[in-house]
Give the backbone structure.
Amino acid sequence: MDVLTSTAIKVTNPINGTILYEIDDPSEKELQDIFERARSVQRRIQAMSLDDRIKEVDKILQYVMQYQDLILDIIIAETGKSRTDAFAAEVFEVCDVVDVYKKMAPKVLKDRNVAIPVFLMGKKAKQFIEPLGTILVITPWNFPFYQVIVPSLMAFLAGNAVIVKPSEVTPLKPLWEHFFAKSDFMKDAIQVVVGGKETGARLVDMRPDKVHFTGSVRTGKRIMEACSKQLIAIDLELGGKDPSIVFDDINIDRTVNGVMWGAFTNAGQNCTGIERLYVQEGIYNKFIDELVDKTKKLRPSFPGRDITTDMDCDVGSMTAPFQVKIVEDHINDALEKGAKLLCGGIKEPGSMHMVPTILGECTHDMKIASEETFGPTIAVMKFKTEEEAIRLANDSPYGLGASVWTKDMDRGYRVARAIKCGNVCINNHMLNEADPYLPFGGVKDSGFGRFKGEEGLLTFCNLKSVLVDKMSDMIDPHWYPYTATKTTLLKNLMDSWFSKSRKYIKFAVNGLKIDTIGKKERLK
Ligand code: NAD
């Protein structure tokens, strides 16, 4: 069985409040069985050729191509996102990731020959790229299909078995059941364990070989603490508070459209969505007027729109009631502290549809400008100079994504370099995430470790170092017996090689002498 559930947590359709189904935490015995199956299947995965693993992963692509409408229906039912958001960031992106990794994996996962220093002349160095074993992937609710499938397929390609604990808010249980029934994907290689926070914590305690966590800073710290008790390796892909810096030389129309998308796509529930907007004073009024005007014209998912079928909806519903409360709290806090509501700020009564909201005259003492909001809001601030913009952008505990908008590419690169973050776009936002060749991850409170890119495969590998020597009749000069003669020769070698001007003849003479000793001198 690939999906485990019983009853207790209600999975709800955020658009109409209908309870879709209920789930519960699996028993201890069920979790132990899951680990046993993972460890057993992992030996088979490791023994498979990479070509065969790629064929398995290709089944994911074939499945997505065949059942994309069903996948979208289930994602929309559990998240409330607009169909285009679900299509672009989940279905399309998964296909692209599979396509790229089919090409990238053979290059990245093959054993490597490594250079050796001159002092090890005659020996060889290699790196074996090996799986770690069983990877536990724990995921959030904002991209519930993509975030389960992508790290899982990478870990599998690298030869690992995978256990995934999706968010209890959007577990997509019917989708995983359908996927395992129809895709013919290798049994037990990826096991989806549906359950709540407690299940996540118990799975960590069962000592996977690595935890790949995507979620909030608060939970990330908790899981890292649990991992530290058993020295379990961990990647942390955590939250963000992305700044976007708009200089006064830009094409206003294009930038307004880009910023609007960067802030409101997926109803702002993006770890790298624009949450802070810094606009240079010369264009501030014109830029903000246009941004507000266009934002008001975005077509939200209410009233009366059926976003399951309506492709002309720009902004869908929010997904989680607790997140809506945070967004409302941040807006209220900003207004109390003097921010100006430029548009939005309201929620359709009785629903989770939050109107795209722009707040002017924000300051960094407001929650909306300092804590992760994770909703369709922009906190706008004005700046004068490049230095001020960089200082404001870096005045945050987070360091996930950022963007810089300018026609001056020297300035674009300079600012991109100066922002302390893991991912940055020049004249776009969040598009790094659409390039599976680019590693993705954060600094500061946004976590560590890299996902996607070559690093995203290697994070699931044991990079085993191998030093190969010949079986000759020589013994190495650094072996016993230690003698004054050998140590002096070694010191001569060091002096001749590392002195300011290299002394090749002295180096060779001392090297030959050491070789001669290596043939004769050994402990009797
Ligand atoms: P969350 O931290 O509340 O939950 C994430 C997952 O952790 C869920 O599956 C949950 O059940 C599980 N969990 C909770 N407590 C646990 C514990 N003690 N032990 C083990 N597992 C536990 O996050 P969320 O609300 O689901 O997601 C929103 C957050 O995710 C935001 O902060 C967002 O920025 C972040 N996020 C980050 C990225 C990224 O790539 N950096 C991507 C998407 C979302």
About this structure: The chain has a mean pLDDT of 95.
